[in-house]
Structures are given as C-alpha cells and as structure tokens.
Write a structure and sequence with these properties.
Helix content: 25-40%
Number of helices: 9
GO molecular function: ATP binding
Number of domains: 1
Strand order of the largest sheet: 6-7-8-3-9-10
Keywords: ATP-binding, Nucleotide-binding
CATH topology: Rossmann fold
Shape: globular
Organism: Streptomyces iconiensis
Oligomer: single chain
Pfam families: ABC_tran
Strand content: 15-25%
Bound molecules: adenosine-5'-triphosphate
Protein name: ATP-binding cassette domain-containing protein
Number of strands: 10
Length: 325
C-alpha cells in the first residue's frame, strides 16, 4: 500500500471509529466519555500470561479513557494488575484481547518497529527498575535526548526545551551529581551504589523528552517522603503546565491523592473510580468492601495471583482481602 493510500485508509478508519456509537456505560457501569478526545484509550482489554492450567488473567476486560492533560492514579493490592495495566497502556506489553489506542492509534495493529517509534516519541515510562548505565549524569542523559530530538526535529528547539525541563525538575543545581544522588532516592534492594539512578535519572529523561503521556509505576516506592512529594509535584506540574497526560500505579493513598481521579483495580478489573481524591477518601474507600464484578467467575487455571480481594462469585471482601460479607 502506498503512503498516501495508507494515510487515507487510516483517516477513514479514524472517522469510522469516531462515528461508532458507544454505549453510555462500560461493563462496570461507569459512564464512558464517548466523543471526548482521549490520549490513551483501553477498550475491553484482557491480558493473560501463560497457557492452560498455568494461565493467569492479569487484566480482565478493562475499559478506561484518559483525556489529555489529566492525572490518573491506578490503585490496587499487590497482584491486582496495576503494572500490567500500565505496560499494556504504554504499549510495552500487547493485550491478549481488546484494544489499546494512543492518540487515536491502535497499538494492536502496529508492527514492532512502528510501536517502538511511537513509544520513543510519545511515551515516557518511569519504573523502579534501573534502565540507565551506571554513572550517567543527568546532564549527559539530557544531552543525549537533546541530540536525538534535535536530529529528529531541528525546528523544535529541543535543546532549550530540555534545559527548561531540567530546570523545571529542580535539577539544575545538581546536574553534575550521579543520578543516584538525585531526589534523595533510597537504593532498592540489590542495587549497587554505582548502578543507581532509578527515578531521578528516568524522570530527567522522561521530562526532557516531553512525551504526550507519562506512565509511572510505583514512582514513590523507593523514595523517602520528601523526595516522593517532590517527584509527585513534578508529575502534577507536567499535567498542569505542559498538558501532558500522567498515569501512575501506586499503593499509597498520599501519592494517589495528587491525581485528578483514582481507578481501583481488583483482580484485573476496575472495581471503582474516584474523582477529586483525597488521602482520607482513598483510605476510607480501601477499607470498604468491593462488590463482586457483574461478570465475575472463574478466570484462570493457575494460582499466580498474589491478591484476591474482590474476586467475584462469592462473598465480598475489603481491600486487604478479608471477607466482610
Ligand atoms: N510476566 C508475567 N508472567 C506471568 N504472570 C505474570 C507476569 N506479570 C504479572 N503476572 C501476574 O499477573 C498478575 C498481575 O500482576 P501485576 O504485576 O500486574 O500486579 P500489580 O498490581 O502491579 O502487583 P504489584 O503491586 O505487586 O506490583 C499477578 O498475578 C502476577 O503474578
């Protein structure tokens, strides 16, 4: 297919998608923001790891939309599917069923090369894992990003943008330090001092690249309280001042309270949604029961799950997995 034909086909597909009537509510009874633009859109997403008796359903029919310039926190017990949710939404893992789209582009329909390019250009992913070589300074990281973005788009004045972002991150005074020294991060277990970097370095990279959507998996998990608050403030700023879309996974009510809304995951399903969250409201919600999902039932052969709260079928459990009804 020629490029022009391909573009035309894509435009038509986009129009068809926009004109497809959607129900006003999703499977969980939450209203769908039909017609509103979404940076990230998950429709009926399932993710199954493994096969047969060993299969684990990590996501079980998730529908969620993320509008541009919004901050969402995904909460849930260990094993509820938060990381899988983020990885599928970011195009790092492919969904087993359903669709994930980023700025209107269906990730499932893209080949690896196109997906890698889209992720590189439009997506930032902040995880607890180390992704940078040891002893890289923030300045060097920023330089590399600047070189790359300038080469890709000389009109964008990436250099100034990268400088501004580093400044915004409050890192200017510290750019000569090793990444491990940034943001007061604690060393996660097993990380050597020289191999550090973690959130500070990843954050600098993510901010300098200015992605449309920034995912952060347990961003405050390895940080002390002050550093965690600093990091969350930066993410908030990315939303409020740069119009970026931020989606984090966290188990901490304080971290989630920085978001515009919280999605509660229970066994791979969205069990509840909270707008304008506060730490108190979230903590309160976590102690109340999750009602079984309407389409609940046995959903896997293996027993890979760590948390079982809200697993449908019988009884009602609270966020700690205790039976309350
Ligand atoms: N690569 C994998 N292979 C097999 N099972 C997996 C894989 N990744 C996750 N799982 C399983 O999928 C389920 C959801 O895991 P996931 O890591 O997404 O949950 P989580 O809420 O992020 O947990 P945590 O808070 O502990 O990080 C769990 O039962 C987990 O064991």
């Amino acid at each position: 297919m020629g490029r022009r034909t391909e573009r035309r086909t894509r435009r038509r597909a986009g129009r068809a998608e926009r004109s497809t009537p959607r129900g006003p509510y999703d499977a969980m009874g939450f209203p769908l923001d039909a017609g509103e633009p979404a940076t990230v859109r998950l429709e009926g997403v399932r993710k199954v790891y493994g096969e047969g008796d060993a299969a684990v359903t990590a996501l079980d029919g998730v529908t969620a939309h993320f509008a541009p310039g919004t901050f969402t926190a995904v909460m849930g017990l260990s094993g509820s599917g938060k990381s899988t949710f983020l990885r599928c939404a970011a195009g790092l893992d492919r969904a087993s069923a359903g669709t994930v789209s980023l700025e209107g582009r269906d990730l499932g329909a893209m080949n690896e090369t196109a997906l890698t390019k889209l992720r590189r250009d439009r997506v930032g992913f902040l995880s607890e894992r180390f992704t940078l070589p040891p002893a890289l300074t923030v300045e060097r990281i920023t330089e590399r990003i600047t070189e790359r973005t300038t080469a890709q788009d000389p009109d964008r004045n990436a250099e100034r943008g990268a400088d501004r972002n580093v400044e915004r991150a409050g890192l200017t005074a510290r750019v000569w330090h090793l990444p491990v020294q940034l943001l007061g991060g604690r060393q996660p277990t097993g990380a050597s001092a020289a191999g550090g970097g973690g959130a500070g370095a990843d954050l600098a990279r993510a901010l300098a690249a200015r992605p449309a959507v920034l995912f952060a998996d347990e961003p405050t998990g390895t940080l002390d309280t002050r550093a965690g608050a600093e990091l969350l403030a930066l993410l908030r700023q990315a939303v409020d001042e740069e119009g970026q879309t931020v989606i984090i996974a966290t188990r901490e009510p304080d971290a989630a309270s920085c978001a515009d809304r919280v999605l509660f995951l229970v066994d791979g399903r969205i069990a509840d949604e909270m707008k304008a969250p506060t730490s108190e409201k979230i903590a309160d919600r976590m102690t109340r029961p999750w009602h079984p999902a309407p389409h609940a039932g046995p959903r896997r052969g293996g027993s890979g799950r760590k948390g079982q709260a809200g697993q449908g079928g019988e009884g009602v459990q609270d966020a700690a997995g205790r039976a309350v009804a």
